[in-house]
Amino acid sequence: MEGEGILQATRLTTLVGLLERYSPTGNEAEAVAWLVGRMRALGFTGARVDEIGNAVGWMGAGPYQVLLLGHIDTVPGEIPLRLEAGRLYARGAVDAKGPLAAFVDAVAQVGEMPGVQWVVIGAVGEEGDSRGARFLLPHYRPQMLIIGEPSGWERLTLGYKGSAWVQVTARRTLAHTAALAESACEAAVAFWERLKQAVLTFNQGRSGIFDQLLATLRQMHSDSNGFEERAQLQIGLRLPPGLERPELEALLTAAANGDTWLIEDFIPAYRAEKNTPLVRAFLAAIRAQGGRPSFTLKSGTSDMNLAAPAWGCPTLAYGPGDSSLDHTPYEHIEVEEYLKAVEVLSHALRGLASIFNDHSGNNFA
Amino acid sequence: MMSTHCPECEALIEVNEEVQLGEILVCPDCGVDLEVTALEPFTLELAPMEAEDWGE
């Protein structure tokens, strides 16, 4: 498929329609309304905008439910849609409208299957506070969960690191600079140096990035009211599996040396089991398309971190696209890869339907 | 029962008929992960390795 006619190709209508509608976090409504209409036009059993603003489409009646959870918001920075050498450039092409569009097209291609309900959700707010995914947690209890994030058509993502934001505040009474008293800024820098040392100690013996604690200093600020000076740091942390909040609090307390810190957000890491019927269905599907499957663990965070532990079902993330293009000005997706991913998804969904029908009554975990 | 050899260490691996396509087995001799890539004939290949990747 080459040439400008590609943009009109029926098999790309969902992808192009989403990419044409710029939808940074907080401004997803137009894209959501369009996607709901698109799912209805494709023959979904039903589609609607839910109470938080997510686009939701469902096909079939169950009782088993496979939830395909993508996100429809993007980071800011519009990239007008254009086609170059078989690549579609646009904001969200890989993160994550490509995977979301592939979910919709695959479910439409597979159609209703006995005993199974496919639910496709384009969640809002994933690049922000994940309000779309958080809203879903008490309302669904799927038997299997597929997260829509770019993994490349031959790869399955099994885990994401966790993340935390920490604000550090150091306060000191103002003193003359000739008095040699520690300033608030010096105290904040000392905090950062102690935390870096604690992170190095924590990471001893941990060879992989996924298993390491990573800390980055994101912002520094200082001010004074004439009597007291204040220095603040914003620290971003990427968390390995097993690092829970109390352990992080202990690290921060040890680094603080009396200064204050506040964990503003804490999302634990998640690593999915690979020996599940869900993974098996995808391995077979990738091989059926001539691919050589592989697994990946990501340093970022996704809605898998929230939804998978809440629902406790077999989980993976899948979607076309190169995740190294996430959030970059060069974001694009290969058309051929997109179409391959739709075929892999369709094959995998058919495989899951047969598993449900062969093993009715199992919990599939 | 079905059987084949581990592609890594040649150990004999026997499974019952309930084994599934795509299932990941562990070689009892060398410990490597093996993927069931065909049932007829019963075929094992080295399972995909877990790589690490930046991004979402």
Automatic annotation (TrEMBL), chain A:
EC number: 3.5.1.130
Subcellular localization, as worded in the UniProt entry: Cytoplasm
Positions of Zn(2+) 2 binding: 95, 127, 327
Biological pathway: Amino-acid biosynthesis; L-lysine biosynthesis via AAA pathway; L-lysine from L-alpha-aminoadipate (Thermus route): step 5/5
Keyword Isomerase in annotation: no
Broadest EC class assigned to this enzyme: hydrolase
Pfam families with a match to the protein in the record: Peptidase_M20
Active-site residues (renumbered): 73, 126
ATP-binding listed as a keyword: no
Domain of life: Bacteria
Any one GO biological process: lysine biosynthetic process via aminoadipic acid
GO cellular component: cytoplasm
Gene3D superfamilies, per the entry: Zn peptidases
Essential cofactor(s): Zn(2+); Co(2+)
Keyword terms, alphabetized: Amino-acid biosynthesis, Cobalt, Cytoplasm, Hydrolase, Lysine biosynthesis, Metal-binding, Zinc
Gene Ontology molecular function, alphabetical: cobalt ion binding; hydrolase activity, acting on carbon-nitrogen (but not peptide) bonds, in linear amides; zinc ion binding
Co-factor binding comment: Binds 2 Zn(2+) or Co(2+) ions per subunit.
Primary location: cytoplasm
Function comment: Catalyzes the release of L-lysine from [LysW]-gamma-L-lysine.
UniProt xrefs under PANTHER family: [LYSW]-LYSINE_[LYSW]-ORNITHINE HYDROLASE, ACETYLORNITHINE DEACETYLASE
Listed name of the protein: Putative [LysW]-lysine hydrolase
Organism, as annotated: Thermanaerothrix daxensis
